[in-house]
Amino acid sequence: MGFFLVFSNPGNAQSGTPFLTRNQSPLSLIYGIPYASPARLLEENKSRWISSLNISNELIKQTGSSDQLVVDLETWQLNFFYDYGLDENWMFRLQLPLIAHTGGLLDSAIDSFHQALGFPEGLRPNYPRNLMAINYRRNNVDQINISSSEKDLGDISLQLAWQAKKSGNMAISYWSSLKIPSGDYKKLTGSGSTDIATWGSMDYQLKDTRWLYGQAGLLYMYDNKVLEEIHNNWATFANLGIKFQPWRPLELKAQLDFNSALFDSELLFLRDVLQLTFGGSYLTDHNNRIDFSVGEDLKREASPDVSFNISWWVNF
């Protein structure tokens, strides 16, 4: 009987915790758009460690009236998050990213993935695999030209959150972040700028086993060093997700992520982005959870063709 209760009792359902995903484009990843944040903060003196690996793969070739862009690469980003409950209503988060841009090691697997699900394949069927290139030309002058693998520390982010409301079926928190230019903008592991963001996160229980969650906010990017002539200083971002927990250890989730254009360009890859992430979480015990998700671009050629996320949450 105890086993049955653990795996089927709706009362064991937990609130909606988002996937740690966002637009993983190499020309977006370096800016301070925050990963989806939980609405419920840690209690005082509680801490949490999160290891999150994002892998994205893209093959883009676009031409405008004055600029051209070629992106053919795979980006691996390993994020380490440390959360600490400062007191009853405040939480601190440190994000330390490691970023590597490489050739398309997963090109073949992604081709098969798109074919199996019937997704558009774009240039892939007729394009060489496992190449590495990021080239942006404006008025026939190279602005970015990277043709070999790059890896380095990314831009570190410091975040502070305040719990505005928390009850059994609803929570709201407000967040702010400061992104420090610790990465190398020449390698596209950083932007060379200090970014400030502010946003609100919420979750709401629809039924015993269903939760709605999301966030929305504003980003300011100062003194950017990447594509300075066309870069926007302000951007908006948001996400919205739904979680279904059919059994106590298993959560199924679908999440939409959006950000407005970071650059003033007619090229789709530099415009606003909407992507869908779907997958699940497995709660190994009260203090451990493992996420796995797959992300697809809903606006074709505006973000990576496909992104994968694996995250391990450990509460202390």
SSE series: HEEEHEEEEEEEEEEEE
Major beta sheet, strand line-up = 1-2-3-7-8-9-10-11-12-13-14-15
Structurally, the number of domains stands at 1
Helix fraction?
under 10%
**Average pLDDT level:** 89
Q: Give the uncertain stretches in residue-range form.
A: 1-12
Number of strands: 15
Overall radius of gyration: 20 Å
Summarize the topology:
Layout: H1 2-8, E1 47-63, E2 67-85, E3 90-102, H2 107-117, E4 133-138, E5 141-146, E6 150-153, E7 157-166, E8 170-179, E9 194-207, E10 210-222, E11 234-247, E12 250-259, E13 273-285, E14 288-297, E15 306-315
Antiparallel strand pairs: 1-2, 1-15, 2-3, 2-4, 3-6, 3-7, 4-5, 7-8, 8-9, 9-10, 10-11, 11-12, 12-13, 13-14, 14-15
Keywords:
316 residues; mainly beta; Porin; twelve-stranded antiparallel β-barrel; 15 strands; 6% helix
Protein architecture, described:
This protein has a single domain, classed as monomeric porin ompg (Porin, Beta Barrel). Strands 1-2-3-7-8-9-10-11-12-13-14-15 form a 12-stranded antiparallel β-barrel. Mean pLDDT is 89; it is low at 1-12. β14 (288-297) and β15 form a beta hairpin. The chain is globular, with a radius of gyration of 20 Å. The chain is mainly beta. It has helices at 2-8, 107-117, and strands spanning 47-63, 67-85, 90-102, 133-138, 141-146, 150-153, 157-166, 170-179, 194-207, 210-222, 234-247, 250-259, 273-285, 288-297, 306-315. The protein is built from 2 helices and 15 strands.
